[in-house]
Amino acid sequence: MARQERGIRSRRSILEAAADVFGERGYEAASTNEILAKAGLTRGALYHHFPSKEAIAVALVEAQGEALVVPDQPVKLQAVIDLTLTFSRRLQTDKVLRASVRLAVEQSSFVTSAQTPYNQSITVVEELLREAEKQGELLPGTDLSEVASTVVGAFTGLQVMSQAYSDRQDLPGRISALWRLVLPGLASPGMLPRLRTSRPPEADEPTAGPTGTATPPGSAEAAHD
User: Fold this and answer.
1) What is the pTM of this model?
2) Rounded Cα–Cα distance for residues 214 and 198 (Å)
3) In this structure, are residues 85 and 176 in contact, taking their beta carbons and an 8 Å threshold?
4) For domain 62-194, which CATH number applies: 3.40.50.2300, 3.30.70.20, 3.40.50.970, 1.10.357.10?
5) Less crowded by CB within 10 Å, the N or C end of the chain?
6) CA end-to-end span of the chain, whole Å?
7) pLDDT tens-place string over residues 39-64
């Protein structure tokens, strides 16, 4: 058991070190020597977990899929909103996730398809939208695939802008603004007062309000971000 725990820790150390190096230099300029130096491990320890720099990058890219944790919300459109808000918060503090996003966004010789994390995200969002449609939360005739791909694409663009301007410190606010603009063309009129476009205060995971519905946009809570 102790050996297994050490293996888990060393693997995580490699990924965190690689996240720092990839985050600073990008995939092309990064080297396994730099990753080893930052992790403080031997080359044998590295190759025990990852046979190449590309294998490390693949593991980092997979972190995006692991971060797509669907919030437990009875209102499925709120679950989509909270998914994006939680992801945006994690991008502010999780360097492995930040490196994962950078690897997916930048153009490099990294051969694993950069479309994989986007396709995963689109699938998760589209499934939630399908549930929302069944519950009557969406406007009639909504193209679910179009909405899902647009939301994921817009999120990607906003996080790139936020990284450039504020090191992602304003990203949750940008995502809140996106939803305030999108929801009137997406949600059925009766749903709009029930939807919250900011993260619940003092909570890492979304929760329903005291009445079982979300806080309306425009309230003091919704304007918090």
Assistant:
1) 0.77
2) 10
3) yes
4) 1.10.357.10
5) N
6) 44
7) 998 889 898 999 989 899 888 888 88
- Give the alpha-carbon dihedral of 181, 191, 171, 199, to 10 degrees: 160
Number of Cα atoms under 13 Å in the Cβ half of residue 203: 13
Q: Where does the pLDDT of residue 164 fall: very low under 50, low under 70, confident under 90, or very high at 90 and above?
A: confident
Tell me how far apart the alpha carbons of residues 98 and 105 are, in angstroms, rounded to a whole number. Answer: 11
Across 39-53, 112-126, 147-161, least confident range: 112-126
Q: How far apart are CA 95 and CA 171, in angstroms?
A: 15
Q: List the structure tokens of 53.
A: 């720099």
Burial class (CB in 10 A: 0-12, 13-18, 19+), 132: buried
DSSP 36-55: HHHHT--HHHHHHH-SSHHH
8 A C-beta contact, residue 155 and residue 175: yes
Q: Residue 90, Cβ neighbours under 10 Å: how many?
A: 16
Where do the structural domains in the chain lie, given as residue ranges?
2-51, 62-194
How big is the chain, counted in residues? 225
Q: pLDDT tens digit string along 11-37?
A: 889 999 999 998 888 888 889 999 999
CA-based angle 55:59:62, to the nearest 5?
A: 140
d(CA 205, CA 199): 8
**Strand partners of residue 187:** 138
* Alpha-carbon 50 to chain mean position: 24
Strand partners, 138: 187
